[in-house]
Write a structure and sequence with these properties.
Blueprint (H helix, E strand, L loop, with lengths): L4 H18 L16 H20 L4 E5 L7 H11 L7 E5 L7 H6 L5 H13 L13 H11 L1 H4 L6 E5 L9 H9 L5 E7 L11 E4 L16 E2 L8 E2 L6 H21 L7
Parallel strand pairs: 1-2, 1-3, 3-4, 4-5
Antiparallel strand pairs: 6-7
Helix pairs in contact: 2-3, 2-9, 3-9
């Protein structure tokens, strides 16, 4: 890792967080919230939780994986709505996957990421998102990626013959999610389904099986903010702990606000347990 990568990624995270907090689209802001300060952003959290829970319940989907980092906090919306609507039924098994670790040398070559301009473009995008910078020599082969998936998610692999939902905030080019889908399918997940919070500006050719909303969310590609305690690496399909610990407070605040929003919205919509 370059000597300054921790500091530069920290700066990127701060810029991204400040930008997300600045979004309002003309809505009146609520000073009680730091990150979900508009009525629309809070309604969208509820909408995602309800859609996820009802979709999985009605189709008897026992496992769901949230894509790091922006979709990770969405598990809180699923958990809150599920416990309110289906209190006597077990919550689906929840997993998290880091898309960067699924990017194999074979996929990058096929997608045209092997040339220096594309590698630099990819690195610049990671920097803007506040991710730790890495040497591309850490990129692995498809075989190594699949072995990592089978080892890291051994319990999930035991259920590969059952329906499985992969959930992300959005899909644009598909560069992030395609390697993830491909790896799980190579391992025999024939009933894999893909869901998104929003399919606005989707020009990937991928048709999600589940879409919560067709418009762009109030907070764009970050309707749940994102998880500040994790980072993505070419060397693992699971998120790694972010090296700068002072983001613990931000992560806790995001989680607390999502939980509070879901409690309030569930009460507002009079969600009753299904009998």
């Amino acid at each position: 890792m370059p000597e300054n990568s921790g500091q530069s990624s920290s700066d990127g995270r701060r810029r991204l967080s400040d930008f997300l907090r600045s979004l309002s689209f003309g809505s009146e802001r609520d000073g009680r919230y730091r990150y979900f300060d508009t009525p629309r952003s809070r309604q969208e959290l509820y909408q995602v939780g309800r859609t996820l829970a009802e979709y999985m319940h009605d189709r008897k989907i026992p496992n769901v994986a949230f894509i790091d980092r922006s979709a990770r906090p969405a598990y809180l919306t699923l958990r809150a709505y599920w416990h309110a609507k289906y209190p006597s039924e077990p919550l689906p098994n929840i997993y998290f996957v880091s898309p960067k670790g699924f990017r194999s040398s074979e996929y990058l070559a096929q997608a045209g990421f092997t040339g220096l301009p594309r590698i630099l473009e990819d690195a610049a995008t990671a920097h803007k998102k506040g991710e730790v910078m890495e040497d591309v020599s850490r990129i692995r082969s498809e075989r190594e990626v699949d072995e990592d998936v089978a080892s890291t998610y051994s319990r999930l692999v035991e259920d590969k013959d059952k329906p499985f939902l992969l959930f992300d905030t959005c899909v644009h080019t598909g560069d992030g999610v395609v390697p993830v889908i491909d790896s799980f399918r190579r391992l025999g997940f024939d009933q894999l389904q893909f869901g998104v919070a929003s399919d606005a500006r989707n020009y990937s050719g991928i048709r999600p099986d589940m879409t919560v909303m067709h418009r762009e969310p109030d907070k764009l590609c970050y309707p749940f903010h994102y998880d500040d305690l994790t980072d993505k690496s070419y060397g693992t399909v699971h998120a790694i702990k972010y090296p700068i610990s002072h983001y613990q407070g931000t992560a806790n605040t995001v989680r607390q606000e999502i939980s509070r929003v879901m409690r309030d919205q569930i009460a507002l919509h009079s969600v009753l347990p299904q009998t």
